[in-house]
Amino acid sequence: MRILLLVQQKQRIILDRFYDSIVRHSDDCELRQLSSEQQADLRSYFADLDTASYDRIILFLRFKKEIRQRRFIRTLPKLVILEHDAYQNYAQGKYHGEFSRHYRALPWARILCSGYVLAERLRDEGFDAVFVGKGYDQQLLANRHQPRDIETGFLGSLESRIYTRRKALLEQLASRENLLIRRTQSGEEYAETLNRIRYFVSADVGMGEYMIKNFEAMACGCVVLAWNQGEVENAGLGLRDMENIVLYESLEELQQKLRQLRASPQLADSIAAAGQALVEQHYSWEKLGARVVEVLKPPLRQKISRTSFGIKRLTWAPPN
After folding, report:
1. How far apart are alpha carbons 165 and 153 in whole angstroms?
2. Are residues 262 and 311 in the same domain?
3. Is the pLDDT of residue 314 over 60?
4. Can you give the pLDDT at residue 305?
5. Crossing angle for the helix pair 251-263 and 164-174, nearest 10 degrees?
6. For helices 251-263 and 265-282, what crossing angle results, to 10°?
7. pTM of the full predicted structure?
8. What does the pLDDT average to over 136-162?
9. Which member of 147, 269, 286, 316 has the lowest number of beta carbons within 10 Å of its beta carbon?
């Protein structure tokens, strides 16, 4: 299978290991990193490409640039869309409902999305959606077994509008607990700081899925306390409360479980070890790159050209 994989040239989250894994597990995968300008003018970028020579064309680009070029993207054959932000389709914010609107214009495309329940919801809307989870860079992030001098912490951004509820919860917690909230540089500084944190507080409130930071912190041996995304999501990801992760649904429950962990260091150690084992087994970018290649293999929905009142339009039919 010959694959064309188009990704963003510059991203805040380093996904090089993910791309490397996709390429390595493929028979023939051509990876191209597009600048912001190239993403904004896909028609020109594709002008010299023989699209028919590829068995799959994967777009993993800025969503806001994709939706402005829907008419051109509809012309691409064997289309697969890889998306880590489609949870915003069902969250209150700028892109509420926009992913569904975009995918309805591309009903033959396969959508690889990072939430288990999200994939189910998109399939219920009629889309060819497949769950491929988020993960972590196994070459950068690991438990270094060093002293943890930061008891409770969160690393990441609070500035975007989508993080409004995250910011509110963490600031409330910081008013009651000695919580470190910090932004670090991607790479070594981030890895080193995660390895200093005993309890990593994740606050993906209202997002419907677990963000990458959960898997990264678990890989580094933190006890992760995460906002509960629901039984179906947890089961789909293999997350078990008080076994490999600590789940909460209110600030009060979060504080109560923190007190429980402090009183039982052995329990905390057990949860951290089980969480680390889970992500090492299932959620490294190495494992997820292989998963991407596997879910590309089934036949895609086929485009069918139909003419009605002299107007040619494209629809889809399930594969034979």
Report:
1. 17
2. no
3. no
4. 56
5. 50
6. 110
7. 0.90
8. 91
9. 147
Measured in degrees and rounded to the nearest 5, phi and psi for residue 168 equal: -60, -45
Distance (Å, rounded) from C-alpha 318 to C-alpha 320?
A: 7
The count of structural domains within the chain is: 2
Q: Which residues sit opposite 306 in a β-bridge?
A: 313
- Average pLDDT rounded to a whole number, residues 137-148: 96
Q: Tell me what pLDDT residue 197 has.
A: 98
- What is the rounded distance in angstroms from the CA atom of residue 268 to the CA atom of residue 41? 50
Task: Give the residue numbers spanning the domain of 108.
Answer: 2-135+286-317
pLDDT at 88 over 60: yes
Max CA pair span of the chain: 74
Helix (H) or strand (E) holding 66: helix 63-66
C-alpha span between 26 and 4 (Å, rounded): 11
pLDDT at residue number 304: 64
CATH number of the domain residue 300 falls in: 3.40.50.2000
| Distance of alpha carbon 270 from alpha carbon 243, whole angstroms | 7
Same domain, 29 and 111: yes
Q: Would you say 195 and 255 are in contact if contact means Cβ atoms under 8 Å apart?
A: no
